[in-house]
C-alpha cells in the first residue's frame, strides 16, 4: 500500500518498527488491525486532536456468570441463526476491566495533543469504574453527556434503562476559545436498524459527538467496531484512525467505511 499524504502514513502515525501487519485505508482514514493495548503504545506523541470511542463495556449483568456470556447473549435479542459476530474483550470482571481501561487510556493520552478531548461511551453498570480509570490515566474528567435511545425493554415497577452515557474529559487544560460551538448534553436517537455490529451506534449520533473536536482534526477510535466513528468523522470533514482487534469486525468495519465513502463521492460527482 502506498503511503498517504494527509498525515495518515504509518511513518507519520507510528514509531519505526511498530507498524501493524494489516490495515485498511482510504482518503483521510485508516483502520489498523490489532490489539489496542499494543498499538496505542506505538503512536507518535501528540498527534491526535481527539479520542472518541465505544470500548467493550464488560457489562451486561450484575453477576460474573452473566458478564461471561457471549456479547450476542448479553446485548442482542437476535436468534442464533441471525446473530452478528461476537467481539473480543468483553468478559473481564470489574477490577481487571478498570485496570485494562486505565492502561490504554494512559498510553493513548501520550499520543494526544494538549487539551485534546476524549469521549467514552458506557452504561450505568460500569460508569463508576470508567470515571476512575479516566482520571487514573491522567485525563481531566469534565462531565457526562447522555444518549437517550428513546426505547428499551419495559420492566414492571422499574425505570426503563433507555440511556447510555458519554463520559468525557480532556488531556489537561481545555481552552474555551477553541473553534467549537456549544454542544448539547443529551442526544436522542434510536438504535440503528440493519446494524452490522452488536453494539453499533447511530451514524448521526457519532456525527454529532465528534463535533467536540476542532474542525479538520485527527480523531482516534481505539475500538472501531462497525467503523461508525471513522465514517462519521470523514463524512464531516475530519481525519480518523481506528483500531479493531476482532477479525470479523475489522473486515466488516473497513468494508463499510470504504463502500459508504465511495458511494458518497459518486453522489457528489453527479
From TrEMBL:
InterPro entries in alphabetical order: DNA_methylase_N4/N6, DNA_methylase_N6_adenine_CS, RM_Methyltransferase, SAM-dependent_MTases_sf
Pfam families, per the entry: N6_N4_Mtase
EC number: 2.1.1.-
One annotated Gene Ontology cellular component of this protein: cytoplasm
One Gene Ontology term from the biological process aspect of the record: DNA restriction-modification system
Positions of the DNA methylase N-4/N-6 domain: 49-171, 191-252
Domain of life: Bacteria
Keywords, in A-Z order: Methyltransferase, Restriction system, Transferase
Gene Ontology molecular function terms on file: DNA binding; N-methyltransferase activity; site-specific DNA-methyltransferase (adenine-specific) activity
PANTHER family (UniProt xref): RNA METHYLASE-RELATED, TRNA (GUANINE(10)-N2)-METHYLTRANSFERASE HOMOLOG
Family per record: Belongs to the N(4)/N(6)-methyltransferase family.
Protein name: Methyltransferase
Organism: Blautia faecicola
